Structures are given as structure tokens and as C-alpha cells.
Amino acid sequence: MSTQSTVNKLPSGSKRVSWDQYFMNIAVQAATRATCDRKHVGAVIVRDKTILSTGYNGSIRGLPHCDDAGHMMDNGHCVATVHAEANAIIQAAKNGTSIDGADIYVTASPCWDCFKLIANSGIKRIVFLEFYRDERILSVAEQAGIKLEQLEIRDE
After folding, report:
1. How much is the pTM?
2. How far is CA 18 from CA 2, 9, 36, 136, 156, in A?
3. What is the pLDDT of residues 121-143, one digit of tens each?
4. Are 7 and 30 in contact (CB under 8 A)?
5. Catalytic site residues?
6. Beta-carbon neighbour count of residue 121 at 10 Å?
7. CA 56 to CA 67: how far, in whole Å?
8. How far apart are CA 156 and CA 153, in angstroms?
9. Based on C-alpha coordinates, what's the Rg of the chain?
10. How far apart are CA 46 and CA 125, in angstroms?
11. How many helices (H) and strands (E) does the chain have?
12. Are strands 77-78 and 73-74 parallel, antiparallel or unpaired?
């Protein structure tokens, strides 16, 4: 009889995902909670392989969701929602969690306003799946010493 534990054993032929893919998978899952059907975005803030905070795009706390009450449109964008990155930063602040020096995993690259919040919060690395709109973040990230990395999820 074998005494080897199989609790941590993966199915035959499967491989463990990288840390980046693991945290991005969680961001993708967080996006499923989004309450604005125009774009579902999830965010996870991580430091030292530990999740500090999560967020998804949704309405102001206590107010009706876009999906239920309709969108508040301004220049082709729904402005009723708080973006995933902002919600993750707010959740960390609300709970007294320092995110200085952390990484953020987001399903779409941040808009300009969220990028500024990320930069000023002390986050040092942004990992994203899809590039979304604002190219200003590319040059400013470099100037601010923030790493921007696009992650490709692979089915292996």
C-alpha cells in the first residue's frame, strides 16, 4: 500500500498554471460579478503571491445596477459604474490594506482615470488580458516606473 498523498496531485497530463495565470483566472472570475453588461471587467490586487483585494465594474454601492435600471451614457461610455480597478483599490482602502508595491491583474487594460489611481496607489505592475483603448498609459507607465504586461492565457 502506498503512503503517498494524492490530495495535491493533478489529473494525469495536466500542469500547474503560472502565478500570473492563476491570478488572472481569478480576475476573469471576478468579472462575472460585473453589473454593467457593456463590459465585464475584473481586477485582483496581489503582493507576495497573496490576494489583497478584488473588484469588478458595478454601480455605486446601494444604487441600482445598470443591467436593471439602464445605462447612464456619456460620450458613448456608461458612467454609472465604478471600474473594477477603482473598486479593488477602494476595497483595499476601506479594509485598511496597503497595496503599495503590489501587482494588479485586470481583464482589460485600465482606462486613463483608473491608470492614474493605480499609479498613485503605489502599484508597480499591471498585468492585463486585452488592451482597451487608451494608449497614454503606455508611455506614462514607463515614465512612472510601472510595468505593463499583456498576458496570453493558454489552454495547455
Report:
1. 0.87
2. 29, 16, 30, 29, 12
3. 999 999 999 998 889 999 999 99
4. no
5. 85
6. 20
7. 14
8. 9
9. 17
10. 10
11. 5, 9
12. antiparallel
